[in-house]
């Protein structure tokens, strides 16, 4: 009788996607909260919560049931990471970013390939594993930066390096996998080696076309008043993932190119990459808890010494590569010693490449199983240990908890120009204005209007304040705050200063209407900064923009550029915490 009654009840006997999703979110929130109480990265708490609830989800196919959510989350993350490769942000840091990224990728590929080969695997298998090892998890990196509210040159370097090494990883894997296919084909039906290069070129070129095309469409939509920003960005990310799958492209690579386009197109487009930030908190929690539930703990003992060799060789390659890259690029030790620690997490891209390999029927099953076992075991270890190392890197760099409004926001590395040369103050002002236009995404048509206000003020009375410093300022009709740039002229320029000294430090301040009170505060703080003879002397001798920033951010001289109080209290960080 009870069985008969139960047969009429609408119980399905298994969890559906929505119930599973709610369980994952609740577990992730709880795990993140406990982790923070224990002073552990919130991401680690999310992942461990996922590991603990994995047995409860055995009746639900996580990989397929929540796959669309995971793909959308990764699409959002890669667009956000790509947007950090904005020229105006990295223009004076390109040398260190490219050098560190190239050498840490080459280091990881070389070390892992050699280590796996020495363990007895063939060269093709070792090379494929080496290419996968080049990847650093963008989701983990971005979430930890959000969680710790970090900001500064290290954050810029780390995000840009992660974006570049993911691009290189995907392209190298495309080439390596085609080499393996060529080696596995029978002698009667060999694959032309040229197809490996063609496939790699298609992956890069196709992703570039799709990413830039969608970016152009998105930017056009942003200029329409009747388009809802959140909806537009949401749909474009869905389109990016869907089109990439349809064309056989890697959606992470197309997402990076989409983000790069939006980050460089205009200030409005760059701002729209943050339209989905209200969703990021929950997406990160869901993504990392889901990752924890999907971890293959059983593969760790199965992979054995091969996994240990992969893990240690990858760590060695990235650390040595990043350190050598930092030294070659003459980067501040504070940056390259921290960057090498922040490159340890590995997750989404590596797992995705393994799935691509497993789905290729041209590769023997025993080879693809071996590679997937090693990578999944290493990813499990890296996703548990990696967040600790990345958070330690952000903490030791001194950039944690710096993503807050400050009185003078433009005293950042990307807004500093060294080695300015000019024959007189008018040429100097023109060049400083040009630099301001490039680094602040200002429309070219506004240049003459802005320069006219700067020149008018300078003709009224010199803006040189003595002791080799000048604070020229201009006016604009509207804006979201006071902006500016700092230019260093080693040879000095005659500004007709009252003390007769040539000007070596030019701090251009651009103020929109309605910010008159803040303008006076900024001017007073800048004057206080350059009143220090030590700061003036060290800035004149700065090697590059990063060196100048390090001088300005010195703990002993930071009082003039204080943090402003947050309106309405501190907002919750967007990271998975």
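Q: What amino acid sequence fits the structure above?
A:
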């Amino acid at each position: 009788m009870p069985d008969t009654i139960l047969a009429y009840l609408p119980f399905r006997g298994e969890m559906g996607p929505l119930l599973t999703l709610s369980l994952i979110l609740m577990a992730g929130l709880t795990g993140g909260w406990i982790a923070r109480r224990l002073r552990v990265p919130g991401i680690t708490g999310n992942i461990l919560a996922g590991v603990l609830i994995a047995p409860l989800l055995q009746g639900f196919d996580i990989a397929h049931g929540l796959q669309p959510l995971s793909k959308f989350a990764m699409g959002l993350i890669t667009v956000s990471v790509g947007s950090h490769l904005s020229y105006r942000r990295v223009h004076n840091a390109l040398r260190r970013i490219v050098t560190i990224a190239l050498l840490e990728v080459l280091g990881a590929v070389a070390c892992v390939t050699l280590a796996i080969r020495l363990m007895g695997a063939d060269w093709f298998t070792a090379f494929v594993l080496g290419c996968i090892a080049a990847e650093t998890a963008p989701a983990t990196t971005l979430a930890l930066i959000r969680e710790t509210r970090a900001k500064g040159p290290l954050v810029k370097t780390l995000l840009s390096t992660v974006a570049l090494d993911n691009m290189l990883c995907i392209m190298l894997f495309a080439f390596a996998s085609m080499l393996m296919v060529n080696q596995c084909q029978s002698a009667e039906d060999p694959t032309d080696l040229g197809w490996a290069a063609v496939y790699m070129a298609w992956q890069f070129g196709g992703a570039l076309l799709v990413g830039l095309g969608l970016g152009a469409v998105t930017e056009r939509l942003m200029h329409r008043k009747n388009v809802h920003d959140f909806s537009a960005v949401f749909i474009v990310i869905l389109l990016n993932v869907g089109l990439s799958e349809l064309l056989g492209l890697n959606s992470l690579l197309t997402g990076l190119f989409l983000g790069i386009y939006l980050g460089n197109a205009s200030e409005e487009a760059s701002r729209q990459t943050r339209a989905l930030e209200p969703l990021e908190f929950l997406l990160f929690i869901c993504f990392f808890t889901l990752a924890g539930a999907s971890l293959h703990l059983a593969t760790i003992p199965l992979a054995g010494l091969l996994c240990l060799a992969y893990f240690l060789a990858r760590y060695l390659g990235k650390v040595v590569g990043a350190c050598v890259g930092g030294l070659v690029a003459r980067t501040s030790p504070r940056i390259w010693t921290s960057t090498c620690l922040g490159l340890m997490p590995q997750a989404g891209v590596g797992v995705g490449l393994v799935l691509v390999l497993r789905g290729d029927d041209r590769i023997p099953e025993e080879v693809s199983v071996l590679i997937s076992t090693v990578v999944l075991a290493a990813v499990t270890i890296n996703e548990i240990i990696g967040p600790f190392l990345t958070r330690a890197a952000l903490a030791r760099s001194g950039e944690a908890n710096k993503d807050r409004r400050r009185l003078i926001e433009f005293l950042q590395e990307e807004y500093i120009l060294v080695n300015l040369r000019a024959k007189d103050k008018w040429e100097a002002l023109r060049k400083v204005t040009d630099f301001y236009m490039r680094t602040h995404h200002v429309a070219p048509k506004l240049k003459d209007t802005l320069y006219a206000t700067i020149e008018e003020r300078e003709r009224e009375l010199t803006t040189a304040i003595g002791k080799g410093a000048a604070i020229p300022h201009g006016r604009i009709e509207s804006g979201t705050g006071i902006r500016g740039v700092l230019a260093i002229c080693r040879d000095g320029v005659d500004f007709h200063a009252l003390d007769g000294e040539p000007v070596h430090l030019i701090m251009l301040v651009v103020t929109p209407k309605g910010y008159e009170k803040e303008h006076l505060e900024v001017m007073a703080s800048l004057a206080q900064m350059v009143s220090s003879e030590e700061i003036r002397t060290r800035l004149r001798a700065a090697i590059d923009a990063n060196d100048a920033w390090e001088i300005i951010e010195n703990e002993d001289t930071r009082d003039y550029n204080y943090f402003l109080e947050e309106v309405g209290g501190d907002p919750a960080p967007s990271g998975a915490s």
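Q: And what stands out in the fold?
A: Confidence is low (pLDDT under 50) at residues 567-577.
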